[in-house]
Structures
1.
Amino acid sequence: MNIFKKTYKRLILMIISVFLLFNLCGCENISFNFNSNDKQSDEQDQQMGIDEKFEGYSTYFYEQLTPKEQGFYREILAILQKRGEKVKISVSDKATIDKIYSCVMNDHPEIFYVSGYSLTQGSETYFSGTYIYSKEEINSRKQKIDEYVAKCFAQIPTNADSYTKVKNVYEYIVSHTRYESVEGEDQNICSVFILGKSVCMGYSKATQYLLNCLGVKTILVTGYANIVINGVHISAAGQGDNHAWNQVLIDGNWYCVDTTWGGGFSSEGSSEKGGKPINYDYLLCTTDEFNIAHKVSENIKVPLCNHSEQNYFVREGAYFETVDLNKFGSLVKRQTSNKKHVISIKCGSQEIYSKMKKILIQDGKIRDYISKNQSENLYQSCSDDMLTLTFFF
């Protein structure tokens, strides 16, 4: 009887073991094969702070996916964060993988060490990231990025509101970055944070990275933009040049930001006192304003920006709904007292813009508000599209 009980128990345990083994094997969808055999890989990943720091990162494009696609997104994100190679994934359709990969990269500018991916397909599909830096180089670059971030954040006032954070990040990137292509480097945040020169993708990803770190939800937007020469829009292939910019969420409303075009003035507008000029036309705008020269890619959907409360000109008291020269004079005094050598205003209508432009530029009345010495260094810029007037001196 005792022998029977022991045999019975052993049989039950054997059945349970086989059952568990079967289910564990059947559920194994992903197996990681990392680049390095270093046993301290996980510890180094933690030191990089990727998973922890960006756990609550803006996931706008993730949120646009179906629940099934979100599962694919999490798989690919995990692979790229771990720098995995030939990792089995549960999706095989190339178009779907392209879509998911783009969403991951749009949401995560901190994955600066990836330039693409490759697939190995047969009965199963295996995913590999294309990694442009070694693990050691990634860690080295991460330290330099942290140094840049610390300097940028140091000049932002304590307890700053979202508007102030966006404005300071915009100004800092524009002031510390030169628009210049860098082969193999200008599509990620390293170009801005380490090299100090980039193109629109680098500018936009750097803006996204900094603002998300500051708690301001920011998304990357890609599409096309028209080049404007003497008020005439010159477009390539009927749609414009490839371009990237951002949208930010402030007090529940979305606004458009183009940091690249924040440095859009020519070198003639520079002054020794004022430093590198900043164009504020594209700081916290509406969709209608951006649509004048920007066009979002057809394959993505972004929120509508239809509020002006946080627009730069509105917040800075530089928005003119009437021809008010007293207000303009007060603005000039405030700027010069703060040692600012740039005056930029936006008009609420074409009529007000035309009148202010005639008075200040065509009639030369701007010189009534600045000193003779400042007049000698005066540079004027106007945008008939954005209804803005800017003066450097």
Note: The CA atoms of residues 47 and 341 lie 43 Å apart.
2.
Amino acid sequence: MSAKIIDGKAVSDLIKNEIAEETAQLQKKGITPGLGFILVGDDPASQTYVRMKGKACERVGFYSLTERRPTETTQEELLDLVNRFNVNPDIHGFLIQLPLPGHLNEVEIIESVDPVKDVDCFTPYNVGSLTSGRESFMPCTPAGVIELMRRSDIDPSGKHVVIVGRSNIVGRPLATLLSRKSEGGNATVTLCHSRTRDISQFLRQADIVVAAIGSPEFIHGDQLKPGCIVIDVGVNRVNVPESEDKRGYRLVGDVHFDSACKIASAITPVPGGVGPMTIAMLLKNTLIAAKRKAGIIQ
């Protein structure tokens, strides 16, 4: 068996094209969706992510604003910057790129974001709304997983989905979305993590496996149920000789791709799978925020 490759980049490109078309229509009404970014410190990965998101804004016609601050930025200075984004009428949504430097109180910073502009869906208000089934933004990576499956004709309804990883960013909100009584949900969800005894026994029962534990090539093909679908959320850098890759590293997922391909019926690659979908969903949330502010939708 050779698994079908689920092309997240192609799907995300399609979504971005749809967003660009809708943005062009909004601009005829004098509305340009605005997305803001706050970047503190000089973490290379964070700088790359913010740059990619900025380019995505350009592609779909959004206004974007990036505020960079040095590592030594104080809590009070950062809270003041967040408040300025909260009241900026040109910004419909914004995010604080994580992780923040260790001396900053991440929880307090996130809680200071206006929920109507919380396009990452990190504030307690939006997390609570999601959990209780109320209308809210959908967290970007979990939403990306749901949308990628939908557009790839993968229906989780009635399926057993095993999620490996219980983070507040992916695992736990994704479990909520997949178990909802609505389209893209109605799955039976098992949430595994680092303290789960014998994860393999759960993986072998799974119709759909979502790997989001942050450990390179943690799941191997011999742990999977034949014909299952594998959604790999992990992005890990593995050092390799420069003769293999001039960067000195390669990117791998949380699933050992080569062995999983022999067992699964479909699988997402890393890179090019879930990653592009996360940015697409961020843009979609920003578009929703702009339409809500304009009174076009509730």
Note: The first helix runs from residue 8 to 27.
3.
Amino acid sequence: MINSEKIFNTNNSRRKFIASLSLIAGAEVLLSIPFVSNAANFITPIEEFTVGQIMETFIKSVPSGVLNKTVDILKSGSADMKVKGIVTSMFATIEVIKKTIALDANFIIVHEPTFYNHEDDVAWLKNDSVYQYKSELLKQNNIAVWRNHDYIHGLVPDGVTMGVLEQLDWKKYSEKSLPNLINIPAVSLKELINHLKIKLGIEQLRFIGDPNQTCKKILFEPGAAGRNMQIGGIRQYKPDVLICGEISEWETAEYVRDARAKGDSVSLIVLGHVASEEAGSEFMLEWLKQKFPSIKSTHIPAGNSLSFL
């Protein structure tokens, strides 16, 4: 006797199989059309972010949260601008701005001022041709500039310090509780200076000390930490050498000179402000790539404004 139920199930399964083959074949035909096969962006929309969203995301990662008083504000553009691409740099120099335009990016994240003073006060520059040219260049090309100084230094550990330690291959030597204090294998002051020049791309360095002095314990103070942190750090931590960004020559340098005359073995190496913090902008770049991978982000070194003869 013929089992009609079995025949029905068999035919039903066959129809489903043929239908599946038809769907696959149809998909292959569809993908063979040039417009469709190359339309990944058409199928999957690219996520968009505003300048303000990126700023807020970074600030949320800082233990202090939003600061009531800070220089870390927009220097041009607006928070609701859609971000096409991001550039990180120490300074939004005119050269950096032009390279940003060439990249079709519209958001620059810098560490230092854009208009030649800490607060970016432009009242005294309103009739200045350099200021006018730079501000118009930003405005005409619809570029936002955000200074990330207080917030990146407020990370735990400090983002600038960690960027420099990474570049120097010193992260493994830094103290966890105070990454600015570094204990390296013993080297001479001359060898230490050569290491800094090679790793940080510095042509020449200023220093105080005996080139043959053995250096192990290093205190690193990037940027313009000032005499209180620099001299205070020497007194508190008693390093073999203080490595800093910049100094007032009549303060920290004179203290180190007198300390050595007294009999202390402390030395001083002055990197220059840009060289001591540029790696912080590379740290920022890596943060952007992790948090906003869909946005093209690029680091453009501002370079040193001063040259050597």
Note: The mean pLDDT is 88.
